[in-house]
Amino acid sequence: MPLQGVYLFGLLFGALIVLAGSGLGALWAGRRSERLAVALGAGGAVVACAAGLVVAMASLVVRFDKVAALPWSMPYGQFQLGLDPLSAFFLIPLFVLSGLAAVYAIGYFRPWAGRNPGRFWFFYNMLVVGMALVLTARNGVLFLVAWEVMSLASFFLVVFDEGDVGARDAGWTYLVATHIGTAFLIALFLLLGRAGGSQDFAAYAAPAGWTGGLFLMALIGFGTKAGLFPLHVWLPEAHPAAPSPVSAVMSGVMIKTGIYGIVRMLAILEKVPGWCGWLVLGVGAVSGILGVLFALAQHDLKRLLAYHSVENIGIIALGIGLGMLGVHYGVPALAALGFAGGLLHVLNHALFKGLLFLGAGAVAHATGTRNIERLGGLLKRMPWTGAAFLAGAVAICGLPPFNGFASEFLIYLGAYRTILGHGLLAAGGLAVVVSLALIGGLAVACFTKAFGIVFLGEPRSPAAIGAHEADATMRWPMAILATLCLGIGLAAGAVVRLLAPAVAQLAGPAAMVDAPSPMIPSVVGLLLLALIALVWGLAVLRRRMLVGRPVRETVTWDCGYAAPAVRMQYTATGYAQPLTHGANSILRPHMDTQLPDGIYPASASFESHTPDMAREKLFAPLFERAAGWLGRLRWLQQGRVHFYILYIVVVLMVLLAWAVRS
Amino acid sequence: MNAAAMIHPLVALALAPLLPGVINRVKAFFAGRTGPPLLQAYIDLWKLFRKGAVYSRTTTWVFRAGPLVNFACLLAALVLVPLGRVPAAVSFAGDLVLLAYLLGLGRFATVAAALDTGSSFEGMGASREVQFAVFAEPALLIGLAALARHAQSLSLSPIYGGLSAAAWAGALPMVCLLGTGLFVLFLAENCRIPVDDPNTHLELTMIHEVMVLDHGSVDLGFVLWGSYLKLWVLGALWVGLVLPGSSGQPALDLVAGVAGLLGLAVLTGIVESVTARVRLLRVPQLLVGAGVLCTLGLLLTFR
Q: Which residue, among A570, A573, A580, would best test binding to B if mutated, counting the most B CBs under 10 Å from its CB?
């Protein structure tokens, strides 16, 4: 191996060892000294993430593509780690966000003193190790082990607040969902390994005629982690329940391992049937539109953000679907634009969703509530958090000059190109354009609601009045993420060039030649820079114009009414009502109205709650039926240990007999 | 790129306040009134730009940034939009997406500024604005897709430049469908009758006007000027569609484009005089109808 590889893999292994070691160290130190545990856990995470980021950036820039193997005594397993542009690209948001969220967690957990931070840091660092291994593993067994480490570590982080019944329920939902996904992955890897004769990714081969079926299994298995509709049910439960830095990492990067799995499978399977591309496109459109629609109906700030993850995974799937169709129909430029848009959105979503979850965490931290209806006026009390949240909100709506626009622009460009052409592909492109436009409009509605009701206006509760700005360890990560969102938005062309090798891996090297070059013209960046300068110039102009003139402050115009009250402000529910009402047949909200009654009405109330459609209509009946069927086997469960030992012995005997027979 | 393309944004800045003047004169003519002077909008802007300011104590910098961001977005949009046969100053593949999203950013800023006041009126207007945008944006992007397909280009200037008289006559059904669809969008996005009544002073029925209730002086000046520019930008998309052919001379093209916009203002005034505002609940239907027209226009290009 050339020297370069030794350095890169050495640094990567070093980072993983530091992460695992510091996690274990924090666990050990947790009961002895909290400060030591935090220093070990957070310090290890930050150092390792910085090192990992160097590895990822360097290997992407030099287009490094190598595999390193270590001895491992696992049957069928080989400890093979690989770095190629695709892995390196996914590692970048992982290390950026995990490092920043670790810094944020220091401040976030300060009020939890006396609750043994060692456990948190152990699971947090193991989560990062698990994700990094998932993204670099080149062996099926190693991949699945890493996948489980990641899933279990995140499960323990979701239920970290052990006194919270809601968190335990959410954790249970997550545990079930993730293992259903894993079951599909195990079957998938077994089939691939059987045909290829080894569990190494390099040897994987699809049995003839099975490619489509295998891809479908990958889409279900990985899609469950990614949160594609209707497999997303765990997401709106687990993300709000987890501590905010964990929500940020889970939503920002962990669900992207599902996307990584899907695109890695595309690279392994090489040629998938055309309907797979259409399926991904369709699932993406449904996830995108329903995700944002359900987000619009939520009152819990973090639950709202969780549904937006479903939406953004949908946008990523739209890009990947376009890319797959481009490969299938032999339109290289479309393949390049679709995959580039999808991949760039992976990075962008990690940054702005991480930022938004950290902002939501700071709000929950300062006010003790995540209920949007009880907040308001926080921008004055939390100027840093508010400004950062606003940046994230504009970015997630896909509006310029932030990064969300760049990735959506690429997907639009791909879709519009198909519309210029002929046949079925043009219909697909039109569907993408309509979906993206609809998602964009609904996202603006949702985030003007989230930002406007939470941060603007007057506080709606004593908790909001007493809010305080987050401390420096929480502010800086948000500020850095906001800056990155703006930076990528302005320098999108350069960023797309950086991820070109990863796109080429999926779209084929020919695609990059055919694609428009540069994909995002530099004039866009200049125009957006001019836009910012223009706003600044106008602000200076206004200040000049107002010099020497009276500038007064008074109340908001109250329409002549003498006693305006805080509760007269528009509520989040009211704000979203015109849209949610129109979608009632999909959202099916539960509403409880108590109208004022009598001559001197004493009380009136209105409550609405929008449960998840897939959970209520699909999974709940399915699991109830399964429980009914499996209940017939309940007599096997005696609750006596010696019976269970008997079962184990019987199973072992049967297996032994079977092994001897063949 | 020609000189007309470079001065188009400046011409727009200078002449956009003429559009509401024309609309109001037409409405006055239909109502049998004398009506405000043609240059009333200029007089209003001049007055507002010389006033001192009053801000609500509830508001923050978001409120003050709203009008400026919106105005800057429209200035940037002017650089991207061709007027008739006058190409845009900046043109690249996909500029139509950037144009739509710049209008979206302006909307976001206006809505955020409205919510910053904590007033229920402004919250109501903001809520309606974002609701209607959900239906208007897909319609606009489909309409532009139809034009893009007709011209086989993804950039606005070649798209509109390619609409010669011969091409126009060849695609007359598409032009009619898109023309109607884009005209409805023009009325809706600019808060004109039948979607919104810019003259009403009953806040409960208003959309755009109620969002800017608390803006005054210089800020209101930028809000109004911005709304005139929005008339210009979206009007230019329509004028480019219905004006067949090019004179071959950039200066003449620019004059024709401006004349087209003034004609659009007259048409708007007539529509405002002879139709009633539809109920708010019907507005989405109107916008979806515009989207259907644009989609039909797109389907016609597939023959």
A: A570
CB A369 within 8 A of CB A362: no
A561 domain residue, yes or no:
no
The minimal CB distance from A556 to the residues B56, B73, B97 is found for B56
Flag whether residue A535 sits within 8 Å of chain B, measured between CB atoms.
yes
- The count of structural domains within chain A is 2
Asked if B154 and A417 come within 8 Å (Cβ–Cβ), the reply is yes
Token representation of residue A368? 């003790």
Tens digit of pLDDT for each residue in A593-605?
888 888 888 888 8
C-alpha distances (whole Å) from B240 to each of A55, A119, B252, B302 are 52, 65, 14, 22
SS3 assignment for A333-361: HHHHHHHHHHHHHHHHHHHHHHHHHHHHH
Q: Is residue A654 part of a domain?
A: no
pLDDT digits (tens, 9 = 90+) for A601-633: 888 888 888 888 888 889 989 999 999 999 998
Domain shared by A524 and A591, yes or no: no
Q: What is the ipTM of this complex?
A: 0.96
What residue spans define the domains of chain B?
A: 19-300
A612 and A494 assigned to the same domain = no
Per-residue model confidence as pLDDT tens digits over A541-587: 999 999 999 999 988 887 777 677 888 888 999 999 999 988 888 88
Name the residue with tokens 């992007």: B141
Range of the domain at A422: 273-544
Based on the fold, state whether residues A531 and A590 are members of the same structural domain. Answer: no
pTM: 0.95
Of A261, A279, A221, A469, the C-alpha closest to A365 is A469
Residues A364 and A449 in one domain: yes
- In this structure, the answer to whether residues A515 and A615 fall within a common structural domain is no
From chain A, the residues in CB contact with B68 under 8 A are 535, 538-539, 542
